[in-house]
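One record is set out below.
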Amino acid sequence: MKIRTLLMGAVAATAFAPAAFAERGSDGQLNIIYWQAPSTMNPFLSGGTKEIEAASLVLESLARFNDSGEIVPWLAEDIPTIENGGVAEDLTSITWTLKEGLVWSDGSAVTADDLIFTHEYCTHPEGGCAQASYFDGVASVEAVGDRGVRINFESPKPFPYTAFVGAESPILQKAQFQECLGTRAPECTTANFGPIGTGPFVVDEFRPNDVITFIANENYRDPAKPAFATVTFKGGGDAAAAARSVLETGEFDYAWNLQLAPDVLSRMEAAGKGTVVAAYGTSVERLHLNQTNADPALGPDQRSVYMDGENAHPFLTDPKVGQALSMAIDRALIDEIGYGAGGQPTCNVLPAPELYASTANDGCLVQDIEGANALLDEAGWVDSNGNGVRDKDGIELSVLFQTSTNAVRQDTQALIKDWWSQIGVETELRNVDASVFFGGDPGSPDTFQKFYADIEMYTNNFAGVDPEAYMANWLCADIPSPENQWQGNNIQRFCRAEYDALVEQMSTTADLEQRGELAKQMNDMIMQSYSIIPLIHRGNPSAHINTLGGVKMSDWDSELWNIADWYRIDN
């Protein structure tokens, strides 16, 4: 199977320069609002989208994924393939060549040593790297000549475009981060808040969970870019206020993640100041069912800690309970009320591309309250004391259900609580400020990684078109814990040896159809464990003011992936 086939014809050249500007900084100020405020500028220390996307203005990778999901060279001269000699015939290595003359924003040269160091940083055994799955299967990274770097794999890797590809796997400057390895990583505040990068902008001031100001990178490789001299990246508030600030008042130029009811967005857009844009990729709004015990009485060393399966949740590890919770949900109504044209019900955590989308779980699309009650009866969960809550062996079906503060999510919570009450499940609702919930602070009890609740809801996706690294998120080794500073991606603490084996098999399978089947098997294993309950395949809506040009929203990478090409349209 040819590498170019695996890319689905996706290798393309970067040719996005608009003719609308010809001088760096000539368009003045750009105002962006992300109502979930970033807590760090180091995407290796947070899996939150807000951190990854804010960092993408500064930190870059060898290749990116454009608005069509095509892989395009970024810091690399071209995309390595078997045909051009960049990928070994036996698929055990890939060799990249950095663009000539590439420098960091401080003027120093970008070298292979920076890539070698970044690999060491993210895979350090005493550290916690939120993006570790992008380096799965990498045996070593070595310099090849002045500008080349070879990534050697432990075994043949049919899709070698993971390490240093996409916004989630950027390159760090060795000189800045070399004293920040392992347990010291979170302590390097200056570097984490103001990384030196190759991107179009440089951090001028970072106020965590508030605002970031950027200035144009004087050493950016294209002398005509970026068009904007400064950027204010405001965080906090809520989706409605962010939408109003672009669509109604024009105070901001770009607003992200406008998860609002469809009719609300339409009314705002009618003011004529801005435009709502959306991109479909792999984003799924889902419920995670904690497979570990979240009882506060356990204390920080055991609460929501996997402990090799010895700390199981009292009832959410029973697939029949999870199945009943899923059956009770009317996904079509959630979609109608909260998403409209920006969403569609789904039964998979991996909904796209089509090659990887399973149809084995489609029964969830039809709500079945009666069937859910019958299933719980069969499993021995009954209301023994008449209080309206099912119980078994002295344990009641009572859950704490948390998510980020967001009007659509709170509406969804209310609907789900009502449906679950109809099957004898008691639900306490909790919402956490989004900047905290999606933050990477290992000391906070309220992050989605800590998961100090029974069930939590949010959206996640992956960069690019190949799901190998994404599906590796559910390896046993990727479970968040105190030992990895809560930075793993296996949020619900799912662990199956047979799942790990499928991940390993996919890493050595070249045939595209076979990779599709393996991805479906992994998806189905998670779905049928009911440790994740998918709800909506989301199109991510954002908005930009009508005087902002060059926006090409992507859901395959950072949606700000081409911000160097943004410019001001003259009225």
